[in-house]
Each structure stands twice: as C-alpha cells, then as structure tokens.
Amino acid sequence: MKFKFITFIIIIAVMLPLFMVPTLASSNVVDISRPDGNEIVTKEVFSICGVTIEDEAYIEFYYKDKEADQYKPLLTTEGKYCFKVGKIFGKDIELKYKGKNEIRIKAYTTATKNDPQIENYTITLVEEKKKENWLEKALNWFTGDEKK
Amino acid sequence: MNSKSKNIKFYYEKVKAILLVCLIILCIVQIGILWSNQSYSSPISLFSNSNSKNSSPVSIDDTKGEYLLPYRIAISTGFDGEHYVIPNGSKEYTTLWNGARQYIDQALETKPQKIQPFNEDDWGTLVANKPYTFEFKTQIPIDIIKWTLNMEDSEGEGLSGIYKLVICPDDSDNSYADTLYVRDDKNIYIYSINSAKNDILSYSVFNEIYTKQKSDINSKSYQMAIEKYRKFEISKDLLSVFSGKRQDSYPDFICEPISGLDKEEYSYDDFYDMALDLFGNARIDYDFDVDVNGSVVFKKADGVYRLYKNSILEYKYTGNQTNIEELNVLEAYKKALSYLLESRSQNDIMSNITVYLSSIDIKQGSYIFNFDYSISLGEENGEVPILLKDYKIPNSDNQLLSNGISIEASSKKVISFKWLALKFYVDNNIENYEWSFVDMYSKMYDKYSELKNEFSAKDFGIYYVLKYPQMQENIITPSFVLFTKDGVYDILMEANK
Amino acid sequence: MDWKNAKTILISGFLILNIVLAVTIYNEMKMDEIPQQTISNTQKILGQNDIHIECPIPKYTGNDYTLKYEEQALSEGKIADELLGDNYAKEAGNLYKKDSKSLAIYEEEGFEYFDTEHNIKINGDIKSGVDKFLKDTFDKIGLPFDEFKQDGYYPDVENENEVSMVYKGQYKDYAVFDNYIIVDISDSSIRSIKYHYKKPTSVMIKKDIFVIPAYEILITEMTKYPGISITQVDIGFKGYTKNDKKTKTSYEGLAWRIKTYKGEEYYFNARNGTLME
User: Any residues with CB less than 8 A from the CB of C31 and at least 6 apart, and which?
Assistant: First the structure.
C-alpha cells in the first residue's frame, strides 16, 4: 500500500514538471528587447521592440491611466493598439505622463488567445540631464542660447 | 588682220579660262590629298612604344584617396536619438571624411590611451552615443591607411588596421578631449588628441549637417540595433528603421553587357569593337580570338584577357613564373591599384562607379583584393551599391564571382583580375519605396526557410542585386539584403503604388 | 569688270598656290620615309652596343595588316603511313611509333617526327635533297609544301655533320612566321622533322594602325642583347601562340623578326614593340 502510494507520488513529481514546462513555455509568445526591464528615459516617444518565439503573434499595448487607475489601450503612433506581428516587431508609443508610466504588453497566438503572455513595465520619463557636452552646446546654439 | 588677232585673242582668253579652271581643280585635288594624309598619318616618335603607354597619365599617388573611402558615414545625436547616414559623395560626406582624415593623422601620432578587447555591446554603445561614425567594408590594413593618408611610418604603432571608427570632439567621457575610437577585428583603441586646433568636426559643423539631414528627409531617421534589439544576436551597430517606416526613392537601373557579346559568331570587326570598348587606344596591343568555350580572348605578350558570355572580364598573367615572393600587403595593394587605374583609364564603363575594398584574402605569395562597386546617383543623391548573386565564371573551375572586382597581386605584379564588366545607366524612372527592417525581415522570413532558426543578423543593406543569368539589358530595382552568419538573403522591394 | 586682267591675276595666284601645295605634299611624302641618316645612325648605335649587323635595315613604316587563319584538320593516318611505313603502333594520346621512329601529332596543327637511326638518306647537296624529299613527301600526305619557303640553313658550329634547315610559311607576298618546317639532318640523313601549319585565308589592312619602324625596335630592344650578330631583319605575321593552349589563333598582326647567324629569332610586335615568345 505504502509502496504504491510512494510510486504514485514519484510519478506525479516526474510528470508534473513535464506538463508544467510546456504550459510555461506556451505562455511566452514574444521576447521583448525594449523595454529592457524598467527604464528611465528622456524622450516621450518610446519604441517597443522584440522578437516572436513562433513565427507570428498578436500583441496589445496598455497603459495605466492614473486617474481611472486601470489599464487602457495605448495607441501607437500609427493609431492602433492591437497588432498582428511577424518574426520581429517594433512599434512607437508616446508616454502619457512625466514620471512613472505603467505599461502592459499582452501577447498571444491564435492558440493561446485565452492565456496571453503579460509583461508589465514601469517607464519613467525624466527631464534630459543638462550635461555640458558639446552636443548640448550644438543644440543650444541652434535654439539661440549659447551656453559655455 | 583685225579678225585674225581677234580670233587669236579670243582663243587666248579661252585657253586662259581653261587653264584657270585646271589650276583650281588641281588645287582642290592637292588639298584633298593633304587632307586625307592628315587623318591617316600618325607621327611616330622614337620612344612612343609600349614604354610610354604603360605609365598611366594619372598616377596612383593622386588617386589613391579615391580607393580608401568610408563605405558609410553616420552622425548620431545620442542613444535613442536620431541617426543619419550621410550620402556617399555628397559635400557633407567629403567635409566629414576630410575632417576624419586629419583626426586619424593626429591621433595615430601617439600610442592609444587605452586598449580594450572588442565587445559588441561596448562598441554599439559608442556608436550610438558619439556623434560621428566612419565605417569601411572591411578592416583596412594599417600600412595601406598610412600610405593613402600620407602618414609617417612611425605612426599607428600597435594598430593592425582600421575597420570602423568613432570620433567624438570634446568627449565628456574622456575629460572633454577630442577622442578617436578605432576598432579592428580584435580590440577597441581609444586615442585622445591633445591639440585644440581642430574645428573641422566641431559642433557647428555637426549642427549644420544635422539640420540639413533633418530637414531633407521627410521620414524617420535611423535607429540602431543596440537601442532596440540588444539582447538578440544582431550586430549592435546595425543601422535601420525598426519602428515606423522610412520613405526612400531609388531610380531604376539599366545594366548592359559589353555590346556584341551575345552574337553567335564573331567577325574581326566584332572583336575590334569589343576591344575598343574595353581597352580604348590600347586595343592595338592585343590579338583577338575565341577559345574552345566560346569566350572572346584578347592576347598580349605576357597576359591573356577572357571576356565571358556573361560579361565577366578575366585577366591572367601568363609570363614567366618567378619564385614565390615575400608577402607585403602594401606593395601588392599598390600593384593592384595601378592595374585598376590603368584599366579604368582605358574605358568609360566604370565612369559612374565608386569602388570600395570589401575583403582581402591571403594566398601563398599574393593577396586577393576584392572590391565592390556602387553606382553614383549624381549630385547629392548618394550612391547605391551592387551585389552579385550566383555569378559564376563559366570556365572549367566554375568559380563564383562574389565581388564586382577581384584582383590578385603579389608585391611584384598583378597575377589575375576579374571584373563584372557591365555598363550601368540610371533610368529616368524613379520610384518611392516605403520600408522598415521589420516588414522586410518578415517577408524574408516567409521566403527563406533557413531564417527560421534563431533570429540573428550581421548586417543589412539596400542593394541592387545582379543575378545571373537574368542579366542581359535588364532593368534593376533595389532589393533588401540581409547578411547572417548562415548566408546572404535578398528580397525585392516593392515600390509604393 | 576686266575679266582678262582678273583671269591673269587669278591664274598666277592659283599657280603659286599649286606650287606651294605641291611642295608641301612632296615634303609630307618625304617625311613618311625614313631618311638614310636615321639608318646610318642606327648602325652606329648598334655598333656602340656591341651588336654586329650585316643586313640592310628595312624602312617600312606603313599600315599594319591582319592575317586570318582557317581551321584545317590534319589527316593523322596519312602522315603516319607516309613517314612510318606499315605496321606502326599507336600509343597513348597522339603518339605513333615504329622501331626507331616516332611521330607525335599535336593540336591538329602540326607534328614532330623523330628517327634515331639513319632511315631517310639525303644524297648529294643537302639543300636541294631535303627540298625534294619534303616536296615529294608532302605531296603524298597532302600538305601544302608550296606555301613554304626556305628560310635558313644552319650548320652546327661544333659538328659539321649536323645541319638544321628551316622553312617558313608564305602567303601571297607575306611571311607567315608561325607556319614552319624545321628539318634536322645528321650524317646526311634526316633526324627530325617539325611541322606547324595553319591555313591563311585572307589579309586585311588596318587603316588606322601603323607599324613601328625596324630601326626603332633595333635601338630600343636589341641593345639589350650585346654581343649578338644580326643577319636578317624582316617583317611577317606572328601571333601569340604560346601563352594559352586553349585558344585558337585566328588572327595575327605583323611582327618584326630579327635573326642571328645561329638561327635565333627575336620577334617583336610591330604595333607596340613588345617581345613575343
């Protein structure tokens, strides 16, 4: 009796990872290279870039609306928030807020539509640091200020 | 008495009239003789034989700079900023390259401030952040660089060659010194330049060029792979458009093989015309013929040219084989360059072409210099490069010709030469193309099953791809070409409707 | 208008013009010719460089010509039958053998015959004897002996019994150097016959290409070989035949030939003066 029970446990223990792995794997539809974790940026336009694990995927972009405190669709510069993408993709979005922006990316294939991959990122938009480099001088010169 | 003298007088006048007419005719005839003599006579001076013909009127010292041009010059405003590629041959390109040459000369006078092993990420970060990047298609050996830029022998110690370089005047990462970052195949070398007399690449120059680029182009600036696809196996300094699209206009091209090549049988006049096309006045040095494979042959004392049906011209040295000579890349390069110059001076087939050194192979006793060429679009419109695909030399070796020009030279002479001798004409038809790396890659992914492995890319470019045997006075349009570690993939771009 | 006076004036005017033109033309013609002074200068310069020349130097500076050849196969069987007799053996490639004789036929353009023994005897005067033998033999084989002319007779310096006779091709009035018959005689019998022939079919003038005069070649090129003794300078057709086996030779231009008394020949491309092998 005990022997059977132990065997049963061992079998479950072995089978479980085997079942887990595919389900875990299937939830990874895309590999996102940008954002690279939580980022601090100085420009409003941000590119979301990555590669799909399979040949294609559907992705959707959301941002957390600070007033409503819920995720709303985030339109790209092309005016859509939902796309079918090929092997590699790159889309430009505009960050809504200065400071923290909570961005969510949903990715799924036709098979995993009901169990999409969800990635959350915090992208902080800050003022461009006033580094005294010559490029700064160049841009200032262009706008009329000449800082030394 | 009167009538008789009148008669005589009349007769006399008639004779004079006839004499006058004869003299005039005689004059015309003599002028005619002199005229025809003029067009056929050729004053032969005592030493007008092959000795003077071999020395080309243009010396390699005058034109060597034209063969060491950066394949690409790019300016950047910073990481995640804007990147622009300066059209080759434009005024800005010349300004920037002249500035870079001075920087190289000054920087290499001293030893590098720091040497670090090459790292894709480090290099990509440099290229993205620093304002100026200059790239060659391959690592140019330091001896060739020193000779072309007239640098001292003692300069450039420790540097084996230059593949790409980044210039940052007033570099905040280097105590605001003017800094030069050079990469060869192993390391990144950091040089700082102490003298402050450089205005050539100063912020006002950058600014002027940046504003012009920004205003000129009505579509996106480039992005860099390190900014967007850092974690993947892609060259970090790869410039392309990843998010959004870019509009570019390209003309159609007509490429024409050497005229007369497509005939079944050649008459003497056919040979003569082909020789005139290829060799100009030097055609009299060659005897013409056809070989057993049907290729046209031009023979001279120590060499044979073969013009194959697919317009590849091949030269082989057939003189006495000397012992294997010592390897010296600069001497071999000079021989190759002199040969190329002479070849170009004999015809105008390469008149609208810029040549870039693509790779150097080492053999026993000789080097093979492979060049690729780009066709000038005129004025400030830059150039478009040509890529050869499946061009085989139709002889018993069935060698693949991968580059537009390939010259094998030892330090003493040129051993062989291969050239895809096509004439290129820019068509009046200009099309607009909207593209992005993402779109083109996806299309390629569907077409080529080999890409279905992991995503990786070494380089990409927009080329006019020449495929054999479709090439016989064809219209060529641009293609998107991807270089990966597995091979080269190309796909035609679609014009906007 | 006073026609009579006018005519007289015009006649005298045109007469003067004609005289002037005639003189100019005469001078032009004269200029194209090579002055004797140049020739004697050339001989002096050669002498200074230790080159002995005992033949006249040709003055030709006219147009270059092109000779066209036609392919014509050799009937190997007939040659073998005639030279080797019966019962010869065919070996690898194009080699035929019988006893002491061997025959190699190459590239459909020629053959080489060797005999280590004294099978073909030449009686009496060697020159006329070889002539007759060749004429008879070639007629039987079907080779055009009448397109060849005796070009040289070279006894060996060391051994009087060994002589080499050279015939060169002839087409219309032109020498065709690439067509030749070379006969080696030893002890009054034929040791070897080397034959090379392509059939010339036409000669075309090259209107805008002129040859370099012989004296130029002598001064600029032959001075590289001090100590030689030049016995003949002439012009004929020669092509680049040695540098590439796979090409045919269909067209040839003119070349200057400079022969020494030992039979050595130097060929120079008549258009650009380069040495031809």
Answer: none
